[in-house]
Design brief:
Blueprint lengths: L3 H16 L5 H5 L7 E3 L6 H6 L2 E7 L2 E3 L2 E3 L7 H5 L9 E2 L3 E7 H10 L3 H14 L11 H9 L2 E5 L11 E7 L2 E5 L2 E5 L4 E2 L12 E4 L3 E7 H6 L1 H18 L1
Length: 247
């Protein structure tokens, strides 16, 4: 018969190795010392974990925070726990979920030993910034976002310039205003809009993009984004919306 506990602990180790690929498997195994727990739907997770000095690794299901869904493989509340910040907002289980409690002290000490603690906190805070963009609110884990960040590039453009993104990227408008142009039609867009989508989904309809004022664009690898089903769905919806308004 299948040993479910061993299965979940093996899965936890797999996610920890993805999260911290520079660390040895044996070191990460030392974090897996407790039994997994099943938590019913609608339960608050972080306050209970903080009281017991634990940090939950989400193994199955999803949790919600401020309308954003966090998928399996997420260390819940990691940035607040590592930075020793107060839990100001709760994560709630959307359905039944299974977690593996990990000792916060052990995890923090492991990161310190490898001089990763400050870097990890910085990356996670950047993830919180990325999650303010609608495109990136669809089921990406912290480590998927960190992977995007490591391959990202910011560009600044002057007023009335064509928007030319680096090859194989999509852009998120962080500051400024851009207009999409097709014939005698135009559509002005502002912060948090996706740029560069015109030629990325294999669709025949296309448009030009030009700045209206000075702008800053965060460029992210298109291939990584399109591989995430939730993000791809969002991009297809955005493309259809632009097409409707410009045609």
């Amino acid at each position: 018969p299948l040993d479910y506990e061993k299965y979940f602990q093996d899965k936890a180790l797999q996610w920890l190795r993805q999260r911290l690929p520079s660390l040895k498997k044996e070191e990460l195994k030392e974090l897996i010392t407790q039994q997994t727990e099943e938590i019913p739907r609608g339960q608050q997770i972080l306050a209970r974990a903080k009281e017991s000095g634990q940090m939950p690794l989400l193994l199955t299901g999803r949790v919600q925070l401020n309308g954003l869904l966090y998928p399996a493989g997420t260390l819940l509340g990691e940035v607040n726990a590592l930075a020793d910040l107060q839990v100001s907002r709760e994560m709630v289980s959307v359905g039944p979920v299974r977690i593996l409690p990990i000792s916060l002290d052990s995890y923090r000490e492991l990161l310190k030993r490898h001089k990763l603690l400050k870097k990890r906190i910085s990356w996670l805070k950047d993830c919180d910034h990325l999650r303010t963009f609608p495109m990136l609110q669809y089921g990406l884990s912290d480590d998927q976002l960190i992977s995007l960040l490591k391959k990202s590039e910011r560009i600044s453009l002057k007023k009335n310039q064509p928007v030319l993104l680096p090859e194989n990227t999509l852009g998120i408008l962080e500051v400024g205003e851009v207009q999409f142009l097709v014939g005698n039609k135009n559509l002005k867009v502002t912060e948090k809009t996706v740029l560069g989508l015109s030629n990325k989904l294999g669709k025949p309809f296309s448009w030009k993009e030009q700045t209206v004022k000075k702008t800053q664009v965060l460029c992210l690898p298109a291939e990584n984004l399109l591989q995430a089903p939730g993000v791809r769905w969002f991009l297809q919806r955005a493309y259809q919306d632009y097409h409707f308004q410009l045609s």
